[in-house]
């Protein structure tokens, strides 16, 4: 609250006082008072008014600034009416009531939207579980009747499965805490699981897969890591060159275990690298490959952040290496040991 | 002896296809028909293993599992489409032995079934396969013919295992590669040819010539 603005608001008061002083002076002058006494009375009047105005201006300023600071500190600012004291001034009380009403309607709206979102999420999750039944049936049908075309069908089914999983994890990524079980997992087992999920896709594209021997175990949720690896594998296949190759290996670096997924694909342009984890970003490769959506890596990054896994991309014209870094958790080992 | 497996699954297509898959892999499979009388069927069929869906009409899989556990320790694999940790935890708490989510990989399902059966019903001697006097020792990866032995690499042993298992039938190259991938050996078509040549050399060295025949454009056969 600026003093100037306050003064401007108080102009009628100043004006009325000046008028009062003028009237009183005229009255006293007519009554035969001396000019000195009139000046003295006027000076006292003006002094009192200025003092009063300064005092109210300061106290008001203090009160409002405190309120402003309080609001700024709040995360949910619309809840300020809950925290502030009920004001004493009549017009302030009206504003207080307005704030209360605004807060109430805001809360109702938020509640409604949250409920809707929850219902929608639940519907999506349920839908995904239901669609998995026919997918399973189709997979079984194909596997029981192996022909060249059922193999191609199986590769397509792997894609369908991956897309449904993507939708499921997207819906769930907001509420990871609900579906998250950390245990000791062998990286090798997760990698082989992810490769098995993409068997027909990899075979269809004649990808040479190598998995280095590894003994590493990490503490994390295996479903999630497998999902992330699935996305990385599908990317490697999507952006491959002739004679594609995929190489999994681990490196121990200090307190962290690094899992590298290396391909010899078309690589990622250096100018694109910083942005590949952004939602909807497809970059230069997106113009080459039609089916880029900019969701896969965004989701991977988001899940990694929630799980405390580092995710980095290194790329040159010879291919891309995606690196997952898991912290070696001594604490868990000690508790278990 | 054939192991008996009971399938408790309400989707008809999955039910029949699972049955085909298991029968094709030399198990005796039967599917539960009345979901209100699963227990009776378990008692009558006496399966060696049960594949149990969680979402079922009437009693759910968890309830059935705990009812079965009252009288039997038969291995139970939960098969479900909801892969939440809560379900997984529940299934283990109620005495399930494994938890597989749909859509599952048939190779993984079969491997799980085989490993559970092996654990629940241990057989005495190490497994061997025999065809025309040639003996394949699975655990030591050795092929034996008239007291002559040849050591095999992991890839070679798996290829021979597949051929022995399907002895007398034609094994398409694609199916062999599929099988190798299911066993985490990621070979391609060229590598398969290289391996076949090596196997033939090894077989010839112990006196087995022309043991594996090539069917042009179809595959291999023993």
Please report the distance between the alpha carbons of the first and last residues of chain A. Answer: 63 Å
User: Main beta sheet of chain B, described?
Assistant: 5 strands, parallel
Overall average pLDDT of chain B: 87
The number of helical elements of chain A comes to 12
Question: What's the pLDDT, averaged over the residues of chain A?
Answer: 88
**How large a portion of the residues of chain B is in β-strands, by DSSP E?**
15-25%
Major sheet strand order of chain A: 2-4-5-7-6
CATH architecture of the largest domain in chain B: 3-Layer(aba) Sandwich
Question: Which residue ranges of chain B are poorly predicted, with pLDDT under 50 across at least 5 consecutive positions?
Answer: none
Main sheet: strands, sense, barrel of chain A: 5 strands, mixed
Report on this model:
The complex is a heterodimer of chains A (337) and B (222). Among the domains of chain A are: 71 residues; 152 residues, Heat Shock Protein 90 (2-Layer Sandwich), CATH 3.30.565.10. Chain A has twelve helices and seven strands. The longest helix of chain A is centred in the middle third of the chain and has 55 residues. Chain B is of the alpha/beta class and 222 residues long. Helix content of chain B is 43%, strand content 20%. A five-stranded parallel β-sheet of chain B has the order 2-1-3-4-5, sandwiched between helices. Chain B has a four-stranded antiparallel β-sheet with strand order 6-7-8-9, with helices on one face. The relative contact order of chain B is 0.09. The mean pLDDT of chain B is 87. The interface between A and B is medium-sized, with 36 and 33 residues.
């Amino acid at each position: 609250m600026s003093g100037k603005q306050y003064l401007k608001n108080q102009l009628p008061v100043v004006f009325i006082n000046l008028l009062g002083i003028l009237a009183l002076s005229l009255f006293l002058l007519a009554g035969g008072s001396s000019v000195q006494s009139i000046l003295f009375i006027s000076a006292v009047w003006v002094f009192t008014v200025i003092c009063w105005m300064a005092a109210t201006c300061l106290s008001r300023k203090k009160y409002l600034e405190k309120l402003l600071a309080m609001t700024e500190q709040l995360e949910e600012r619309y809840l300020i009416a809950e925290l502030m004291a009920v004001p004493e001034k009549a017009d302030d009380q009206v504003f207080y009531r307005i704030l209360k009403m605004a807060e109430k309607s805001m809360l109702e709206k938020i509640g409604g939207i949250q409920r809707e979102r929850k219902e929608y999420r639940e519907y999506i999750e349920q839908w995904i579980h239901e669609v998995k039944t026919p997918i399973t049936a189709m997979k079984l049908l194909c596997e029981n009747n192996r022909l060249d075309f059922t193999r191609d069908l199986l590769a397509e089914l792997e894609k369908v499965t991956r897309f449904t999983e993507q939708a499921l994890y997207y819906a769930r990524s907001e509420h990871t805490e609900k579906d998250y079980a950390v245990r000791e997992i062998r990286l090798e087992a997760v990698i082989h699981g992810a490769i098995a999920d993409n068997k027909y896709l990899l075979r269809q594209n004649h990808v040479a897969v190598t998995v280095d021997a590894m003994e590493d175990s990490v503490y994390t949720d295996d479903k999630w890591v497998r999902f992330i690896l699935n996305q990385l594998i599908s990317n490697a296949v999507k952006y491959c060159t002739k004679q594609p190759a995929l190489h999994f290996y681990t490196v121990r670096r200090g307190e962290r275990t690094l899992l590298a997924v290396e391909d010899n694909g078309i690589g990622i342009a250096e100018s694109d690298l910083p942005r590949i984890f952004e939602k909807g970003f497809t970059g230069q490769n997106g113009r080459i490959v039609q089916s880029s959506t900019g969701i896969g890596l965004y989701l991977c990054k988001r899940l990694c952040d929630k799980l405390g896994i580092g995710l980095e991309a290194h790329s040159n014209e010879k291919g891309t290496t995606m690196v997952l870094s898991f912290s070696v958790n001594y604490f868990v080992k000690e508790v278990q040991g | 002896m054939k192991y008996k497996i009971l399938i408790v699954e309400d989707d008809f297509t999955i039910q029949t296809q699972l049955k085909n898959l298991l029968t094709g892999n030399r198990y005796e499979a039967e599917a539960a028909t009345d979901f209100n009388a699963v227990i009776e069927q378990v008692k009558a069929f006496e399966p060696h293993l049960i594949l149990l869906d969680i979402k079922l009409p009437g009693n759910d899989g968890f309830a059935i599992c705990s009812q079965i556990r009252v009288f039997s320790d038969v291995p139970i694999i939960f098969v479900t489409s909801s892969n939440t940790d809560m379900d997984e935890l529940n299934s283990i708490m109620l005495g399930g032995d494994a938890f597989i989510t749909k859509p599952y990989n048939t190779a993984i399902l079969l491997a799980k079934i085989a490993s559970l059966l092996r654990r629940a019903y241990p057989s005495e001697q190490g497994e061997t396969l025999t065809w025309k006097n040639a003996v394949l020792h699975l655990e030591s990866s050795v092929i034996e013919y008239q007291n002559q032995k040849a050591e095999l690499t992991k890839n070679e042993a798996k290829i021979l295992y597949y051929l022995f298992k399907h002895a007398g039938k034609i094994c398409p190259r694609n199916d062999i590669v599929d099988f190798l991938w299911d066993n985490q050996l990621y070979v391609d078509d060229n590598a398969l040819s290289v391996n076949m040549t090596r196997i033939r050399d090894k077989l010839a060295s112990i006196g087995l010539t022309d043991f594996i025949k090539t069917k042009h454009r179809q595959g291999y056969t023993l």
